[in-house]
Design brief:
Layout lengths: L1 H5 L20 H8 L1 H14 L10 H16 L12 E2 L5 E2 L7
Antiparallel strand pairs: 1-2
Length: 103
Amino acid sequence: KEEFAERNLHLITKLRANMKKNQVLTEPQAYYLRHRGLIETAFDVLKNQLNIEHSRHRSPKNFLINLLAGLIAYTFLEKTPNIKAYPQKLEDKQIVFIQENVK
C-alpha cells in the first residue's frame, strides 16, 4: 500500500476479519466498492473477448496497434458494462457527474 500511496494511488478493498478495524472507507470508496463487479466485468470483456492482455509483442508499434484495435472493437459492442461516476460536489453546492460517452 505504501508504494501505491507514493504514486498517489489508493487501493480500495473490503474489510476482512484479520484487517485493522480503524480503517474507514470514504463515501466515494464505498460507492466504487459496491460497483466492483461491473468494473471487473468491463476488464474481463477487454481481456478475454478483445484480447488486449496479450503481452508478447515484438515491437511497441504492434502493441499500440493491438491496443487501439481492441478499444475500437469495444466501442462497437452493443452492450457494455457501465456505471455512473461518483457525484463530486462543488463549492456552490452543484453536483457534477464525471462521465464520458455513455451508450
